[in-house]
Amino acid sequence: MSMDGIQHSKCVQREVSNPTDAAGVFADTSNNEICIVVIPKDLACCCCHFPYLSIPSGYNILWQRWYRHQGQLEPGVKPCWPFWNRVSHMVTQATITYNAPSRQVPTADNVMVDINLSLTFRIEKSTDDAYAFVYKLGTTRFDEFLAAEVEEGIRGLVYSVTHDRVNDLREEFAQGMLMALAKKFLPYGVHIRNVKITEVRLPIALQDQLEQTTAFKSRIAEIAKKHENTIRVITDEASQQQEQVIRTNNRRTQDLMAQCQKYEIEHKEIVDEMIGSARVQEMEAQSKIDVAIGQAKGDLEVASSEGARHAEEVRRKMQISCDERKVKADQAYGVTVLASEAVLNTTENEAQSLIASAEAENNSTAGLEVKRKYELEWERLEIMQELAASGRRFVSGEAGQSIIKDMVPSAGLGGKADSSKKTFF
Fold it and tell me: Is residue 209 very low, low, confident or very high in pLDDT (cuts 50, 70, 90)?
């Protein structure tokens, strides 16, 4: 898989006949292969010890005794190297750049894009890191694991966004990939240093459309800037006009305020003048009121004196009139008493005369009795007739009994009433 001549890197391990040849092997990157581990071949010798063994520096050198791991071997010349000792692995300490281009990666809106990713990693100068890399992972499995993780990470990150955001999120993709890969490869002694998206390529037609869109956006931005400039010019002119209007209004406001102050001063003077005039008028009116009150009090006293004198005069006249009326009443009373006494004497004389006449009649004949009773009965009936004709009367008590008794006819003019009959009164 390639992209613009960039081939997908491949991590390999190679064999050398002597450890000193490792530098050339590590530097050889033909066929886009990156040599990470070099394994020296077993040395052939007819005796039990080799005269010496030269160990180069700059690498993690792992050695074995009787094919048993013994740790890291320090660089330098090792004299009398026995055959049961061997250099098992030489791991580079250089920082390695790994290219991983990916083609036809779908975005969230199903647009296929090509992405080239470049990452750098290093195996530190540490026996534990070198041992973990060689014996836990190995170069072949590391290459497969790294290629799969990078491909999966790229596709997962690209699929989470649309095509218009792919170019804008390079740094975000790189940081996400860096954290994920560093966490996964750290247990195997591999330290991921940096991850970088070097290139993102969209389909040609879409790329052209995006370029045209970018051009239109640039034109729109330019027009927007011109429009903003025009608006700014108009705004500045309007601001100047507004400032001029504000200044004019302020000047007119100052003139009006001065006129208002002048009018206030004049108004205050007029008010003061009117207050003074009102006070003078008030004092004059008060003096007139005092004079009128004094005059009224004098008139009141005169009227009171006149009224008292008039009342005394009326009282005296009424007293004289009452005395006159009293004298006249006493005189009338005396006259009335004398007249009454005369009438009484006259009446007594007439009564004695009637008594004498009655005694004379009584002493006269007895035949006059029936006539007298008849006349009395007739008069009684006339009286009862008048009572009956004048309306209904309600009379009770002895008077009522007397009237009822008079209304009931007697048994005879000279007889008595039957006492055995039932009476109701």
Answer: low
Question: CA geometry: angle at 240 spanning 238 and 243, to 5°?
Answer: 105
pLDDT recorded at residue 59: 77
Cα separation of 167 and 197, whole Å?
Answer: 10
- Predicted pLDDT at 184: 85
Q: How far apart are CA 113 and CA 147, in angstroms?
A: 18
The mean pLDDT of the chain is 79
What does the CA dihedral 148, 152, 154, 160 come to, rounded to 10 degrees?
A: 180
For residue 331, the number of C-alpha atoms closer than 13 Å in the C-beta half-sphere is 6
Per residue in 115-146, pLDDT tens? 788 888 888 887 788 888 888 888 888 888 88
Provide the β-strand partners of residue 102: 115
Question: So what's the pLDDT on residue 412?
Answer: 44
φ and ψ at residue 56, rounded to 5 degrees: -75, 160
The C-alpha atoms of residue 191 and residue 120 are separated, in whole angstroms, by 9
Q: Residue 270: what are its φ and ψ, rounded to 5°?
A: -60, -40
| Cβ atoms within 10 Å of 395's Cβ, excluding its own | 12
Structural tokens at position 385: 């007739």
Please give the Cα distance from 359 to 371 (Å, whole number). 17
Segment among 75-79, 279-283, 350-354 with least mean pLDDT: 75-79
